[in-house]
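User: quick one, fold this
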Amino acid sequence: MKERLLDLLACPSCGGDILMPYAGKYEDREIIEGVLSCRKCSREYRIVRGVPRFADLDKIEQDKADTAENFGWQWTHFTQEDKKYAEQFLGWLQPVKPEFFKDKIVLEGGCGKGRHTSLAAEWGAKEIVGIDLSAAVETAFQATKHLPNAHIVQADIFRLPFKKEFDYAFSVGVLHHTPDPKGAFVSLASKVKKGGAVSAWVYGAENNEWITRYVNPIREGFTSKINQPTLYQLSKIPTLGVFLASKLIYKPLEKTPLRKKLFYHEYLTHLGTFGWREQHNIVFDHLVAPTAFYISREEFEQWWKEIKAENVQIIWHNQNSWCGFGEISNSPYAIFEKIVN
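Assistant:
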């Protein structure tokens, strides 16, 4: 933990300022072991292996704990890098471009292994704080500790330990895995100050009926319940099918009229740009989650109305998911505008 993170922290229980009465071990600029304390209610939170710990997995709801455990295993094993990550990230953040991050204080809701945290830092964020509930924070910290403007915090997105000091918050592929996706979105947006902005990417209900009808029952009843090392091996079977189809059928036909006749063509053509390891990661990701919601356009639009956002853009991505962007109004009478591509 870098000491200046204290300027952004607040007690998740009472909102009080966070102090650091004890720092026991340093590595360069990072505090590796220490204690944080709330000035108001005196609650204490530990810094363990460089990460402030504001969430106790033994005390949170079972569905959150199960999700954190499964995804934590994933992001401590799929630690590879891919040159396509920046392009993929920007696809999910539409219409945001890299220059948007410059000099902003940014909050990431669900950082996984820290790949997007790193990109935001490299694109010039003044500070980027990635939170995650799972053990993925261990991988994310190792991946970002060399970056002077990057911070990793273990926290529950529903009880964020921050002041309302962020210029921009985003969440990619996380909200739909929480027990209450809209509630998690509202919680994230609550830490953005007036005049700031929010982005979110979620699974769409539209065009994913085949997943909710056929894949979800298998995921909910079987794959999310077996141990992760076993699922890691079993998931190679469907990955092989996806890999061969994306490389031998979808990618070669990408620029032909036949492309649009193929099942799920936008997404599977996109997958064809990745290699085996990343495709295995994606398939595993879909099978490991105990909770997954698929959000309709109408429902997603309501989220932005809930936070009274303005200049809202909602974009249909790969014909299977929704990207949203909106600004936190300075006015009490925000105007909701939607642009759907």
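User: anything notable?
Assistant: The longest strand covers residues 192-203.
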